[in-house]
Amino acid sequence: MKKYIIVFASMSGNTEEMADLISESIREEGIDLTVTDVLEADPSDLEEYDGILLGAYTWGDGDLPDEFFVFYDEMDGLNLTGKKAAVFGSCDSSYPAYGAAVDILMKKLQDLGADIVLEGLKVELDPIGEDEELCKKFGKDFVSKYSIEVSF
Question: What would the pLDDT profile of 65-84 be if each residue is shown by its tens digit?
Fold first, then answer.
């Protein structure tokens, strides 16, 4: 059975809510999923999973949140070749670099060899209404991307 992990940072609860919605849809597909706050996660554990999802809000003018700094730095040297990955996060359009943390984490995962299988999911502030469905679809699409690619 494939193993997936979601690692997220959330200050206001918005990104955590996104993680909950995404995890709900992934679990509906029968996937073994671990969900953890970035402060409780060990970056080296990522190598043990087949699918990796990172979630973070964007701080200030386009930075990773402080909670992600150590995790991000300790990802250096990981070999994520062959791992499927995607990134999501809550964003605030009042800042010029909308959702930059999502882009930063996608680049990091790519640099470590992971295959980014979905465009980053950026949601304005909290996932309500259509955004709830986008989060659930993101989880289902992540699972289906993996299933399609490994079936060949």
Answer: 999 999 999 999 999 999 99
